[in-house]
Amino acid sequence: MKIATAAYPMDFLDSWKAYDDKLTRWVSEAAGSGADLLVFPEYGAMELATLAGRDVARDLEASLRAVSDRIPEADGLHARLAQEFGVHILAASAPVFDADLGDRPVNRARFFAPNGDMGAQDKQIMTRFEREVWGVIGGGPLHLFDTALGKIGILICYDSEFPLLGRAVAGADLILVPSCTEALAGYSRVRIGAMARALENQCVTVMSSTVGACDWSEAVDENTGMGGIFGPPDTGFPPTGVIAEGRLNQPGWTYAEVDLEQIAHVRADGVVLNRRHWDEQSGRDSIAAARKLG
Prior knowledge:
The chain is 32% helix and 23% strand. The protein is α/β, with parallel strands linked by helices. The chain has one domain: Nitrilase/N-carbamoyl-D-aminoacid amidohydrolase, CATH 3.60.110.10. Strands 1, 2, 3, 4, 5, 6, 7, 8, 9, 10, 11, 12, 13 and 14 form a 14-stranded mixed beta sheet that branches. Helix 1 links the parallel strand 1 (2-9) and strand 2 (37-39). Helix 1 (16-32) packs across helix 3 (60-85). The radius of gyration is 19 Å and the shape is globular.
């Protein structure tokens, strides 16, 4: 398959048509380049708050609700584009108020197949800003999506930094990592997490990023990142583990060809077998009595 992962700049939108045109342009470009799977970043949907005006977009709580209100319409657009262009799309995640999960929003990414099917993945563990300032909460459980492109898991940004969450989706051939990071340090943390999950699970991870400045938002005012596609540095993959990466803060798609047979092969006969040997940590993951040296 061919994967396209976005370094996505958010815009101040003057109409729904502007958003429709933008998404259509991005999807058309990736599909026209032969991509089968398109990955948009965490919180890329925050630009929808601008449809309610600058004052709403700049107000943290009002912007959460304004974006959430637009998600059904945005989902209809993504579903239509997935079918029209014959691609799988991970839409940019968004704050969503879900009455079944409480009175605070979750951070939800929605996944669209070309046959009209749709799934959703909520972020599990919130960053300090999300929990202390926004009041965003952990949502529904992790899922493994069985698709025509293989088994796909989604770890939203900070989730990729936790190995047990990665292990929960160890059955995935691909783990998608949509991210939104203000500074290079934040981008680096998520990138390192994504690469570590590729190593442990002997799979491919796909990281997308928001990029650029948004003076209309206190929440996503500065964004640093780039697209990246990573594998285990082992048989059949680059020795660095980097299959493809974009340029820092340069908007656009990063592409890579990925073969599921390569993933199956490295899991069966890699130089190392991290995924198979994971359970050997049990019983060895404790420390004996401390020993004083020197």
